[in-house]
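re: ur question from earlier - yeah i can do the single chain one, its not a big deal. heres the input i used so u can compare w yours
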Amino acid sequence: MSSPHDPSSSPNHNHSMSGHHHPAQPEPLFHVHPMTEEEAQDICTWKYEPPYQLYGFLPWEQMKALGIEMGDSDIRRKQYVSVKNRNEELIGFAQYFPLVGVTRIGLGMRPDLLGHGKGAAFVQAIVSDAARRHPEDEIDLEVLTWNHRAIRAYQTAGFLITDTYERPTPEGMGEFHCMVYQPEANPAE
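and the output i got, formated as tokens:
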């Protein structure tokens, strides 16, 4: 018999698919979906200010002709997602690199939105999607050690620096941090 305080006794009570009652959550700022060819073309037009220019892509026609990155429809379908805001505006993208036991994410936010305090929420939307796709995988990313703005956003979203190393970039050797998603760890100060 239900008690008068049992929310499941209400005729208007809705059960979630898991069978647990969850209080109404605010709509997330960002959501992730498969990247379309039109979105890939748009992303290829984004221009980043120095020193962030190395994060830009080649022009779309070149990407498509070379069959690289999101210019290859198979790679785009398997690895790339777009991130939109509540108004359905394209605000960024992510790539999920196929590694064994690890989902390594690469990501980029539209240049005019950088530095406005939305980075952690943007990263969290991507992490949630990656975890939903491969719940057994560790989630990590690489970031150039000079990119303090991105590092702060990643730390706020639950990533910790676990390694530092050098590897090639399009502009020569670069020093990178590997950061692993560990939400149970203490957040950044």
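Confidence is low (pLDDT under 50) at residues 1-22. not sure if urs matches, ping me
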